[in-house]
Each structure stands twice: as structure tokens, then as C-alpha cells.
């Protein structure tokens, strides 16, 4: 699973590839993978970075859930660019889609 697709490198930030792997593991379904990446993140960046990265993952997860649960419609400017992705993910079948 990849957050936005396959990519190489670090996204232009120090240890970005490790942080992306942590985010993927945090929303994934493998406790073993998450534990391994959590340990690697602590070894590489320290415990404070684990706390910060965890807070960011949780915040993004919460923001998405709030938007989804309130039925916030997609901005008109984002409809065309996201059409294929929404179709692939089945988002257009969500009940809140009727408000778009």
C-alpha cells in the first residue's frame, strides 16, 4: 500500500522516506510492520520524532474523518482532477456524494 502511489526518494525532506513508511504502517493492518518501523524511527530520529510523526498521522486521519462525516463536498476545482481516483476508490458511491 502506498499513500499516494509509488515514489522514490525522501520527498525533499530529511528522512522523508522513513516518515512515509511510518505513516503507511500507522494506517495499515500489520502490527509487526508498525512495530518494526516505529523502532527504526526511534533509532534514526529519536522518541520525540516518533511522538511528532504519530500526532501528524492522527491529525490527518481525524481531519479526513471529520470531513467525511460532515459530508463536506469536494471543491468544484477538484472534481475533474480527482474523478479517476474517486471512481477507483468507490467514493462516488458514498451517500454524501449526493451533495456534490
Short account of what is shown:
The chain is mainly α. The protein has helices at 16-27, 31-45, 47-70, 76-89.
Uncertain regions: pLDDT < 50 for 5+ in a row?
A: none
Largest sheet: none
Beta-strand residue percentage? under 5%
Radius of gyration: 16 Å
- The helix fraction, in percent, is 55-70%
Tally of alpha and pi helices: 4
Q: Total number of β-strand segments?
A: 0
Q: Number of domains in the coordinates?
A: 1
- Secondary-structure element pattern, one letter each: HHHH
Question: How is this structure best described in words?
Answer:
This protein is mainly alpha-helical. It has one domain. It is built from four helices and no strands. The chain is elongated, with a radius of gyration of 16 Å.
Question: Secondary-structure blueprint of this entry?
Answer:
Layout: H1 16-27, H2 31-45, H3 47-70, H4 76-89
Key descriptive features of the protein:
100 residues; mainly alpha; 4 helices
